[in-house]
Design brief:
The protein is an all-alpha fold. The chain is built from 17 helices and two strands. The protein has a two-stranded antiparallel sheet with strand order 1-2. Helix 1 crosses helix 13 (273-302) and helix 2 crosses helix 11.
Length: 428
């Protein structure tokens, strides 16, 4: 992989064995993705819709599904050293992967860059006004932090590693301190509040998964840097599961105890606002950097940009998300981004069926296909329709998986190596 000024330059070129990283460093990156305001919000939504223990258990099961699916898709990225969008060139064909999957991934990721950066910018503006007496316009705050967070994504995986090595231990300490102070300030009486159950147990499982759906299906963007399948599983399990469940549980507890799910706001309320704002900025930074990084990979493929222009494309992707968030446009399209989850999940199911069943889980059986692989495209579309009709996003993974295997029996996929196969692209 070409490097310049210590910045990761290439996007879709397979990661060579000599460029792989330790599972521990990748676990920190995975953990950084999990710690963000939406993760705490997930716990709050569950706490308001069902009793404490069902909320925690259903949310935890959602993360179990996340870990299982991420591990399976992540091992594909590890085997081939390829990003998620590149892997789809077998299942969907090079044009299907480019014009369908990469665009869906990119739009979703850019949208979440803007939404999360908007939360961070608003908190910073409020903090500066209330505690420093300095009026920072919200647009300026959003753009400022958007650019700062974007720099990490531009420099690539090595920069993400360094950020998460520092931020994750700090955030763990801050979350523990915030919980202790919240209990000391408000007591535990809120834990006994009765809740009228408005969400089913399976609905809670689905909610937990949905908050991490895009990151789950695009797992290979991170795991392509792993040295082995075993390392991939370890980084996903130890990176995603502990921090995911911790933020979920804290969201539930803080909602019950302090009537505020956001750990940063709780810290401000109990008198340590600097820690609160730092926690919010860092938790947004670790997540948004990865969102912008993955969006850059997808746009390189979607627009056919030269591979070595990853950094420039990442800058554009991050700035677009930041500006859209700063001017408030994304406040009106969150429903659209949620709808995209119905389109994202079946992609993972079809990819798994193609690689692990049709391709027998062997890297040498992976073949990019010219044009559209209509077997994969049709299976994906049917899986998305089924998931949308049942209003269960993660059902799309199972539906896509099963439908692909059925359709492939009657219309053998070109990914088996039929005419039209492109030259193999393997990690060196």
């Amino acid at each position: 992989m070409e490097k310049k000024n210590n910045a990761e330059a290439n996007a879709l070129t397979p990661i060579g064995k000599n460029e792989r990283k330790s599972w521990i460093s990748m676990a920190f990156v995975q953990a950084g993705i999990c710690v963000c305001v939406p993760s705490f919000l997930e716990g709050a939504l569950l706490a308001e819709a069902m009793p404490v223990w069902p909320a925690i258990i259903s949310g935890t099961l959602g993360y179990v599904i996340v870990v299982v699916v991420m591990s399976i898709l992540g091992m594909m990225g590890c085997d081939l050293g390829m990003a998620s969008c590149t892997l789809t060139k077998s299942t969907f064909g090079d044009k299907g992967g480019r014009y369908i999957v990469s665009l869906i991934f990119a739009i979703n990721l850019i949208g979440w860059v803007g939404i999360q950066n908007g939360v961070c910018g608003e908190a910073f503006t409020n903090f500066m006004s209330e505690y420093a007496g300095i009026e920072v316009p919200l647009v300026v705050s959003n753009i400022l932090w958007g650019i700062i967070m974007l720099l990490t994504a531009v420099f690539g995986m090595s920069a993400l590693e360094k950020l998460d090595y520092v931020s994750i231990p700090f955030l763990i300490v801050v979350m523990a301190l915030g919980t202790y102070l919240a209990i000391k300030e408000y007591g535990m009486s809120g834990m006994g509040k009765e809740v009228t159950q408005t969400m089913s147990f399976l609905g809670g499982v689905g909610l937990s998964f949905n908050f991490y759906a895009v990151g789950t299906i695009t797992a290979a963007d991170i795991t392509r840097f792993q040295k082995s399948r075993k390392d991939t599983i370890k980084s996903v399990v130890w990176g995603v599961f502990p921090m995911g469940v911790i933020t979920l549980v804290l969201g539930v507890l803080l909602t019950k105890i302090a009537d505020n799910y956001d750990i940063s706001m709780v810290l401000i309320a109990v008198g340590i606002p600097v820690f609160g704002v730092l926690a919010l900025i860092l938790s947004t930074w670790t997540t948004n950097s990865t969102n912008a990084y993955s969006a850059g990979l997808d746009i390189v493929m979607a627009l056919g940009v030269p591979d070595h222009r990853r950094r420039e494309v990442t800058i554009i992707a991050g700035l677009v998300g930041t500006v859209l968030g700063a001017v408030g446009i994304l406040n009106h399209i969150e429903g659209f981004l949620s709808f995209l989850s119905f389109l994202v999940c079946p992609v993972g199911g079809v990819m798994m069926a193609d690689y692990w069943i049709v391709g027998k889980g062997k890297a040498e059986n992976w073949h990019p296909v010219k044009g559209f692989n209509w077997t994969g495209v049709a299976s994906w579309a049917l899986g998305a329709i089924i998931a949308y009709l049942f209003k269960i996003e993660y059902l799309g993974i199972l539906a896509g998986f099963v439908i692909y295997l059925i359709v492939e029996k009657f219309v053998p996929s070109q990914s088996r190596g039929a005419d039209g196969r492109l030259k193999e692209e393997k990690a060196s």
